[in-house]
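Q: Can I see a sequence and its folded structure?
A: Here is a first one.
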Amino acid sequence: MDFRYLGNSGLKVSEISYGNWLTHGSQVENEQAKACVKAALEAGITTFDTADTYANTKAESVLGEALEGVRRESVEILTKVYWPTGPGGPNDTGLSRKHIHESINASLKRLKTDYVDVYQAHRYDTETPLEETMEAFADVVRQGKALYIGTSEWTAEQLQEGHRLARELRIPLVSNQPQYSMLWRVIEAEVVPASEELGIGQVVFSPIAQGVLTGKYLPGQQPPEGSRATDEKGGANMITRYLNDDVLTRVQQLKPIAEEAGLSLAQLAITWVLQNPNVSSAIIGASRPEQVTENVKAAGVKLEEGQLKQIDEALGSVIERDPAKTAQNSPQTRPGR
């Protein structure tokens, strides 16, 4: 495993991290989830990402149990706040001072730890003054409950304003967690340049585009049984936009490129996002330990310029690059259950 600095901070994270969105506490039985975490640790992964909203708090609990007995200082735990938790009452969501303080305390109990390494704003809250949000995050840091602050799916302008307030409050805002893959490149035009200027690193999710970039979904055929596209617990609706013959046909054209590089399609996809120097870590998920073992082989691989050009040519017009998609994919009002 190779390690990278998280933004311009002194914190190093494993360049492949393990996340439990859509798996722990919902799709995957607890013992299997713990086996996946064990496989991640054995593969050299030290960075673990979760959120209070995943499986409505259950994912944090499973991760906390899975990491019991592991030396706390040897791992980096990232969690998030914003989306609804609990019964979804009027203050069970957003980035108000009330919700942030109540959420960090509950997350720490579930994760069985005194602090998280990075506490992330899971989206931008349009209904709470940013000053209130950042002051609450500053309190969390000064109380020793989080070492660093991060965001998720913030626009370039939101990152700039958040970073300005963080500097005034003298707290380290060092990361952003966006969706990023060969197919979804919306951060490249605005978010990445702003982040490079601010010293913010990307911890990217869905590097294999919800499984589409594994090549297992074939044009003209029904999704394989047991795949994310057939999951009624939430996975299916996340992958729908990619399940058209144009996208799936172009993904199949990546196979010779992966073979030339000595990689599986999934490994190629993870390796691809790691070629971006602003990416500090790529999050992988898993429902089986062997998936972790295979995907970590993407660490430390360098793709040649010719291979990157071949990937662009193979995917062509199905690549989404519109920077406006970042804002469009975030709620314009606070969500409720």
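Q: Show me another, different protein.
A: A second, unrelated one:
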Amino acid sequence: MKNKLLALSIALLFMSQPVILHAEGNSKAGKEKATACAGCHGENGNSAVTNFPKLAQQHASYLIKTLNAFKSGERNNPMMSPIAMGLSDKDMADIAAYYAEQKISTNSLPVLQKDEDDDEDDSEDSADASEDIKELLALGSDLYRNGVLASEVSACIACHGPFGEGNRPAAFPALKSQHADYLIKTLIDFKSGERSNNPENMMHMIAKKMTEREIKAVSYHISVMK
């Protein structure tokens, strides 16, 4: 019950955030304009490299907000910032509309890497690894839905929805089926303060209380949400 109240309090906080409105984009025009994005994010927004985020099925409102953050310098990235600087508001709306219409690909079950000092895998080691990933996924599922009351880590469900679908009017991103590696890096960046462009710096306040295992667990769980 206390965990549910914690999630509810965070949800109510974000309900007070203003709805973000953007002009509707043209997805057909956006497909042409997104050609330069395919190298990192994939032709249809499903990146092959797990360090680059999938953009397919992402809310246009969030994508526009993110591009504007790169353009204004609110977020800095040696690759994205120069690209965003050359985009007009219409370009951003069109590109975002295109990616929002694409279907995100699913991910296979994460595989935990053995320590470098371990011997080669045998059947028993593989079984143990399978149990470990199941434990991590269970921990991630519980954290996503309930948070961690003892350390005041808020439940992800409050802002990103029960199925990782996000919140389009508030420009909170959809998370389901995102690459685990990208999610882990994102949470680490929020935890360290390297990334802070979110309402009330809420993600930093949450991530800084998370352990490395919790970050990995919830990222793995989100990566297999459909």
